[in-house]
Amino acid sequence: MPGPQDAGRQAAEGPGKPVSGRLLLVSVFLSGAVVMTFELVGSRLLAPFLGSGLVVWTSLIGVVLGALSLGYWIGGVMADARREADTFAGLLMGSGLLIALTALVSEPILGWGVPPGGVELHSVLVSLVLFAPASVVLGCVSPYATRLGMSGLKEAGRHIGTVYAVSTAGSILGTFAAGFFLIPLWGSTRLLFLVAGVQVLVALPFSSRRWMPLLALAVVLAALAWQDSRPPEPGLLLDTDTPYSRVRVVRSRDAQGRPLNLLVDSPAGAQAASYLDSDELVFDCLRAFRLVNHILPEPRRALLIGGGGFAWPRDFLGWNPWSQMDVVEIDPAMDEIARQFFRHRSDPRVRVFHEDGRVFLNRRPGPYDVVFMDAFGTSDTIPFQLTTVEALRRVSEALVPRGVVLANLLGSPEGRGAAFIRRQVASYRQVFPRVFLFQVDPRLGMTSLQNLTLLALKDARTPFPPGREPGQPEGVLRSVLRVRPDEPLTDDHAPVERLARRR
Q: Can you give the residue ranges of every domain in the chain?
C-alpha cells in the first residue's frame, strides 16, 4: 500500500512524468520556508518608510494571512479541476516571479509617502499591493501538492497531515534562518531575489517544458542584475540590514550648509548625526542633556540607554573627563557604523552593552549618578518596555540617592500630540518626587511635534541653580510642564504607539 511520500508516483493526471512524492514534499517544505522569509523581509522593506511598530506588523501579518487563506482555497479548487504537474510547476514559478517583482517595485511604491494620520490604512494598502499577490500564489502550493500526491482516500488523512507538517517545518526553518542569519547576511532585497530564484528552480522537476523554469530563473537573475546596476540614491552612503533594523546613512547639510552624515532607520527623520569635521553635537535634544552639570557638578558614573551614533558619550566625557559611562545599545552593528560614519572612537571610560535596555535594568546595575534615556525604535517611539512605571522603578534603583534622570521624548507639550507626553510624565511621577519637562527649542509652538527633555530627581531636596530655571551651557530651557494628570503607563497596558500616533 503506497505511503504519502510515494502516492504521487502512481500518476498525475495530465501530461508529464509521474510526480515524485518526495519531490512534492521538498517543494512544500521550501515553499513554507519562502513564505516566512517573505514576511520577515517585508517588515524590513516597510521599516524605513512606515516604521516597524505594532500597526505595521499587524497590517503585514493580517494581509499575508488573508492572502494565504485565499490561496489555499484557490489552490484546492484548481487541484479538483485539473491535477497535473505542469500546473503545479506554474504555481511555483509564478510565486517566484511575483516575489522578484515585489523586490523591484517596493521602494517606488513605498516612496509615495504616508498621508497625515493615516498610517493604519496606508500600511494595509501598501501591504496589499506589495505582498498579497505573491502570498496568494504561495498559498496555492500546499493544497495543490496535497491533491497531486494523493491516489486514493484510504490514507488521505495521513498524507494531508504529512504535507502540512512538512510545510510548517519549512516555515519554522525559514523564520529562524531569515531572522538569525539570512537578512543580516544578504540584506532585504537580495534575499527576496534569492528566495524567488529558489522557488523558480523547485519548479524544474515538475515541468514538462524544462525551458520555462530556466527562462523564469533568467528573468529573476536579470532583475537582480538590473537592481544592482541602478545608481545609488544621491547622498546614500550605506543601506544595510542589521540584526535589529534596516539602517541607511545619508550625506546631507544642516541649515547653515555644513556637511554632515545622518542615520535613518525610520520614516520621521534622523536618529543620529555627525558633522564631517567636528565633534560638535548636531541635535539640540542632546545638548539639553548638558543640564546634568547644573544639577550634579561632578557626575562620576553615567548610564545611557540608546547609543545610536555615540555622539552623547563623546560629548558628555568631554565636559566630564573624570566620569565613566555605560552605554546600552541593542544593535551590535551600530558600533562599527558609528565608527565609520559618526566619528565614534574607542574610549576606556566607555563600556558598551549590546542588549535591550529593560533587560539591562532588570539586572539591577549601578549605582549611577545620572541615567540618560534616549532609546527609540524604528517606529519613532520609545520602546514601550522602557516607558512603564515598572521600568522606571528599575531606573530609580540604579541611581545613587541623589541621582538624576534625563529623558529625550518626542511629542508636543499641548494639544493632540501631548497624549503620550501626559502619560509618560504621569509614569515618572509615580516613581520620582520631582519631575520637570522642558522644550528643547522654545521657538516651536506648544502644539508642534518636537523633542522635549524630561528631568526627574530621585531626591526632592536636590537643588536647582538658585534664581533661575535649570539651564544648559548654550541657554535656558523653557519649562512646559503644564500637562494635566493622566494615567501612568504599566507593563500590563502601555499603548505607546497608539498614543504617539495622535500627532
A: 7-229, 279-500
